[in-house]
Amino acid sequence: MIKEKYKVFSIKKELCYDWLLNKHYAKRVPSIIYSFGLFENNILVGVVTYGMPPSSTLAISVCGEKYKNIVLELNRLVVNEGLDKNALSFFVSQSINKIPKPKIIVSFSDKNMSHNGYIYQATNFIYTGLTSNCYMLIDKYGKEFHFRNLGHVQKKLNNQINIKKRIIKNLSDDLLKKEYKNIKNKNKYFGHCYVASECLYHLSNEVLKVYNIKHEDSSHWFLKDKKDNIIDLTSQQFQTLVPYKNARRIFFLTKKPSKRAKILIDKVLNYNFKIIKRRLNEDKINKIEIANYLRNNKGNWTANKLDKIFGYKDTAAHWFRKDSGFSFVNVDDWIKLKEILKLDNKYDDIMLDYEWIADVKEIIKKLELKKIEILPKNRYVYISANKNDKKNILNNLKHKSLKYPKNINKRYKNEYKPNVQLQIL
Question: What's the CA gap between 273 and 362, in Å, rounded?
Fold first, then answer.
């Protein structure tokens, strides 16, 4: 009866926008890779969308690193009122069957909207318990500010970050040595090779090598990266090309930034927003290997002693844990921890590989956003695969299969009728 009355077809995602923005309670368009329509008498009466999970962490948390690329989120399901019983479960199951296999479908029922996921239960999803993120962001007008929007703001700010350009922009006469300050008709690069190179050396997200050469009657400093590519921020001060092949490798006069370099570093990092270092590819680093390395070199240092040195409370202990309580040492703390524990350079390539990003905490403050506690959501998982693949995926499922929750389910009602629903298939 249901099969005869209702049909499910793939539709363009643009046909879903009116439904998602005006009829679904979330009032926003999520990531959409697959979109399907439920049709009754050739009229669109509902839409369902599938997209990328909000984060790679979520994808990995379902069945691990191996299967993260086949995880999809059923992120929106919205239909008109008055449909037949079982129409929604029919809609979901038919739409999943139209998605190429293998796929792991994850979806969440929002307890804050009194949803328990009965549609997923009727479609034989696996119930895996409650989520851990139990708060949301609210703007100063009392409206929800979604975490994805926070990511968009951060991305815009990140695009403004360019350390090399900032160094060149902030070169000024107060950074020059006395012998260079009184020289007339000098360009902005003149006399800044040492401080510019030193600044980039300490702010760069890669390990750089220092070089020096005598050129045009002056001592010239520049850098090279791992592949020996030349990085010379002040080469434009010269009238002739620098003969880099004749340069010798050398070290700066001090291990830590000089007084002039500190002044320049402060200028470079003085954006109208706070920037911090974020380690690259941290999700691919072997946590247990790092924990064991730190444990083997810990010596007599206790977590409490390290917390006092770093100014933390109950933080250092997590650096040495081999369970889910492990946390990475941040980039700056790794440099300091190396000195304390007298670590070698074995893991510098991965632990000091970072990028500069806008600080999310600072963005939340500036946008006057507030965190409020909310109820956790019910997490459901569906394995769409052949028999062998399904067995392998289930063996890697990171969550236990639990009994379905049974509570009073309140349906979110919205009488709005999207304009596109009148479109004949």
Answer: 7
The residues, any chain, with a CB within 8 Å of residue 410's CB and separated by 6 or more, are 113, 114, 115
Q: How far apart are CA 354 and CA 410, in angstroms?
A: 47
* Rg, C-alpha atoms of the chain: 29
Confidence of residue 147 (pLDDT cuts 50, 70, 90): confident
Q: Tell me, rounded to whole angstroms, the distance of Cα 389 from its chain centroid.
A: 29
Euclidean distance between CA atoms 93 and 328, whole angstroms? 41
For range 159-172, the mean pLDDT: 91
Alpha carbons 367 and 403: distance in angstroms, whole number: 41
Per CATH, which fold does 2-131+375-422 belong to?
Aminopeptidase (3.40.630)
pTM of the model: 0.63
- Do 117 and 148 form a contact (C-beta atoms < 8 A)? no
pLDDT digits (tens, 9 = 90+) for 333-363: 999 999 999 999 999 989 998 889 999 988 9
Going by C-beta distance under 8 Å and a sequence separation of 6 or more, which residues neighbour residue 284?
none
Type of residue at 398 = K
Q: Could you report the per-residue pLDDT of 174-218, keeping only the tens digit for each? A: 999 888 887 776 788 999 999 999 999 999 888 899 999 999 989
pLDDT digits (tens, 9 = 90+) for 231-262: 999 999 999 999 999 999 999 999 899 999 99
Q: Give the chain's end-to-end CA distance (angstroms, integer).
A: 20
What does residue 31 show for φ and ψ, rounded to 5 degrees?
Answer: -65, 130
